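#struct-pred
JK: can someone run the complex with manganese (II) ion? inputs below
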Amino acid sequence: MNAALAEIATLEGTKFMKPIIGITSRDDYTGRIKINLVNHTYIDAVIEAGGIPLVLANLQDLDDIDGYIKTLDGIIFSGGEDISPLVYGENPIKEVKNISYRRDKFELELFNRAYGKGLPILGICRGIQLVNVALGGSLYQDIHQQIPQALGHVSTYRIEGGYHTIDIKRDSILFDIFKEKKIQVNSQHHQSVKDLGDNLRVSARAQDGVIEAIESSNDNFVLGVQFHPEAMVSEHKEFVCIFEYFINQCK
Ligand code: MN
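RT: done, structure tokens with the ligand placed:
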């Protein structure tokens, strides 16, 4: 609990304050007006797991980010655009089309400040990639161009059900959560983690070797998943456990 909330909690006696969980959002320029979007499934999952969701704007005055850091107890880096490959020192291949400079700039700085303060972090889809890149890692810009043996990862059917299996390492946060070595997950990503960033380790891979989950190897709580647990909660209740475990770290 951060200082401001602790003060409120003290003022109100024994009243329990739920953790406030920031959720990053997508810049949408496709319509008549510019808007920030976040899938409602993230919001629902945070509420169901006992947190208070707060959707974050892609601030461009980076010093204002400290206002978010003071307010939040944990941050979910959500899905969305590809990260510009320039961030990890490459030019884009032709399959990389949908990027957002504004979001990259905001999220990288938000991650650095949150990580520096030890705030718990959950990265989902683009979020696992953001976490990895922010810590100095790189990405496969397009799985099917760059990994010859890759199986399917870009399901276009409904996202609520499992599409492929992942193998979870026994000594990992993800195993603590699911208590299983193999689970089915959805898959709607054309990129994945390549070289690992600093202080990260792999906690799950798909059968073809594609990295599907990473976690912190130091005292910071960082969990990244390449699948979308928030979208599976409605039909596979067990996926809310990822959010419960994360929010428990935010107290
Ligand atoms: Mn996948």
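RT: quick notes.
The chain has nine helices and 13 strands.
The mean pLDDT is 94.
JK: thanks, will look after standup
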